[in-house]
Specification:
It is built from twelve helices and eight strands. The protein is an alpha/beta fold. It has one domain.
């Protein structure tokens, strides 16, 4: 099952715009074919990494689904006029679609990799409620290093999940997929960032009206100023320089 990609003006990247219903249909198809798949998302941070890191760019270029995660990415795609539903329905952060996983037919085995031990366990319990017929298992991601990574790969081989939620934060989770994807069992691997903590109730979600206004960054900045400040105030200038360099080199 293939999903058509579309160009994002200005940013020089591609995505596969989907609504929640569209994504659930795609996931059901992936579950049915039983092959190895990857689902990632584009925001300004990932766009910056795409233009600055060859390994990250390769992962995204070879991913099966690239969701529209960040509001600026969504708005720029909206300029193409390709939206068949209200534009905001195409903005899919992980917590926008994870609560609907129970609608994915044939989904029986889910693995949750990432977050601390307590948050991981709470997220597993929450997902068991969302997908009552599925077996949901968890592997915490705290203290992630080569030893933990190897143990996680071996654990996944034993679990044989159909869907893996990989929540180690960007770009660590993407680096893990770059290194390990070929040795991982067939499954749908979804990078979900901090969604495990959010599912567990450890990290507060921004009010949805802020998301509709594209102001979730302000919420994150308020809660985690040290971690988020560079992405909000520094990284956009890095991205602008990268895009300007591409333009000067004649790249679209």
């Amino acid at each position: 099952m293939s999903v058509a990609r579309q160009h994002i003006p200005v940013l020089g990247v591609e995505a596969t715009p989907l609504t929640v219903a569209g994504l659930l249909e795609v996931l059901a198809g992936f579950v049915d074919d039983g092959t190895r798949r990857t689902v990632v998302g584009h925001n300004l941070h990932s766009v910056t990494l795409t233009h600055s890191d060859a390994g990250f760019r390769s992962l995204y270029e070879n991913s099966d689904v690239i969701l529209l995660d960040g509001a600026p990415v969504l708005w720029l795609w909206g300029r193409t006029g390709n939206a068949e539903s209200p534009l905001m329905e195409y903005r899919l952060g992980s917590t926008d679609w994870l609560p609907s996983l129970g609608q994915v037919g044939g989904l029986e085995r889910i693995a949750v990799v990432g977050a601390g031990t307590e948050a991981n366990a709470k997220a597993v319990a929450r997902l068991q409620g969302i997908v009552p017929g599925a077996t949901v298992s968890g592997f915490p991601g705290e203290g992630w290093n080569d030893v933990v990574e190897t143990a996680a790969v071996e654990w996944l081989a034993g679990q044989r999940p159909q869907l893996v939620l990989l929540g180690l934060g960007m770009p660590l989770q993407e680096s893990v997929l770059q290194r390990r994807l070929d040795s991982l069992p067939p499954a749908i691997y979804c990078t979900v960032g901090g969604a495990i903590d959010q599912l567990a109730g450890v990290q507060k979600l921004a009010p949805r009206w802020l998301g509709r206004l594209g102001l979730e960054w302000a919420w994150r900045l308020l809660l985690h100023p040290r971690r988020v400040a560079y992405r909000v105030f520094g990284e956009p200038w890095v991205l602008l320089w990268l895009l300007t360099r591409r333009r000067l080199r004649g790249q679209s």
